[in-house]
Amino acid sequence: MFPNPVILQSEGLLKYILETGVYPREAETLKELRNATAKHPLGFMGTAPDVGQLIAMLLKMLNAKKTIEVGVFTGYSLLLTALTIPHDGKIIAMDPDRKAYEIGLPFIRKAGVEHKIDFIESPALPVLDKLLEDGENEGSFDFGFVDADKNNYWNYHERLMRLVKIGGVVVYDNTLWGGSVALAEERVSEAKREWRRLSLAFNEAISKDSRLQIAFLSIGDGLIICTRLR
Ligand code: SAM
Ligand code: CA
Q1: Do 3 and 174 contact (CB within 8 A), yes or no?
Q2: 70 Cα–ligand 1 center, Å
Q3: Which-ligand-closest: CA of 123?
Q4: Which helix (H) or strand (E) holds 51?
Q5: How remote is the CA of residue 4 from the centroid of ligand 2, in Å?
Q6: Which atom of ligand 1 is nearest to the CA of 74?
Q7: Per-residue pLDDT tens for 180-220?
Q8: Buried/exposed code over 176-202 (b: 16+ C-beta within 10 A; e: otherwise)
Q9: Which one-letter DSSP state was computed for residue 79?
Q10: Which residues contact 75 (CB under 8 A, 6 or more apart)?
Q11: d(CA 72, CA 67)
Q12: Model-level pTM?
């Protein structure tokens, strides 16, 4: 089964990418977590493995040690981050759904990286606000990954721009929302219209944010990579 949703419109090409360059290098515990996630009714929400590979590359290039994860689900991107950062690295991860996190937890434990993770069972906004109450946290994070409720992406962005250091990176997932951002509204199902509208507004706002260097990518369901410039 392919990770879903997928912007890349050729399943054959995606299969080629995954089978040639991604699956052969995917850690065994990540594979196991991905297979366990596939049994979840919302299993399609797990981060696409090719997106994961890119995130791991960014983490390595940044030498990231301290990261934030907004939206954990069963923890594919969380385990991937924990496997990539150093032994004394730390991830603050937040999600109100602890049950989903517990599906991934045995694989996180098996990988021996649980000590790097501070999972907070909560919506992310109050946690980010709490972090900002302590001035020491400002500009102290190397990396953030946002893959949660799309209506709050801009709220997360404003907070992450203060928590991440200059030169740090924040990655936003699902920014092309199944390709709907490029379709006329009437061609999009009712269920997807609100998310399309939110994605359009977020993408436009971020493209105008002069504090950042950005890259819009058509990988997975669309990804925006931002580097904080000032
Ligand atoms: N990155 C995850 C992975 O690799 O499997 C996938 C995350 S999934 C697409 C979105 C998650 O966002 C869900 O687990 C959901 O519970 C969580 N979520 C929804 N609202 C949230 C909020 N206000 N704060 C934090 N997480 C939230
Ligand atoms: Ca996602």
Answers
A1: no
A2: 7
A3: 1
A4: helix 49-62
A5: 9
A6: 5
A7: 899 898 888 888 899 999 999 999 999 999 999 999 999 99
A8: bbbbbbeeeeeebeeebeebbbbbbeb
A9: H
A10: 33, 93, 100, 101, 103, 104, 105, 107, 108
A11: 13
A12: 0.96
Other CB atoms within a 10 A radius of the CB of residue 6 amount to 19
For residue 60, give Cα distances in angstroms to 82, 83, 84, 226.
12, 11, 7, 16
Please write the tens of the pLDDT for every residue from 59-89: 999 999 999 999 999 999 999 999 999 999 9
CB 214 within 8 A of CB 206: yes
For the CA atoms of 117, 123, 126, 127, the dihedral, rounded to the nearest 10 degrees, stands at 0
Residue minimizing CA distance to atom 16 of ligand 1: 97
Nearest CA to ligand 1 atom 23: 123
Ligand 1 nearest-atom number relative to CA 124: 24
Nearby residues of 40 by Cβ (< 8 Å), 6 or more positions away: 74, 100, 103
11-228: what fold? Rossmann fold (3.40.50)
Take atom 18 of ligand 1 and give the residue whose Cα is closest. 148
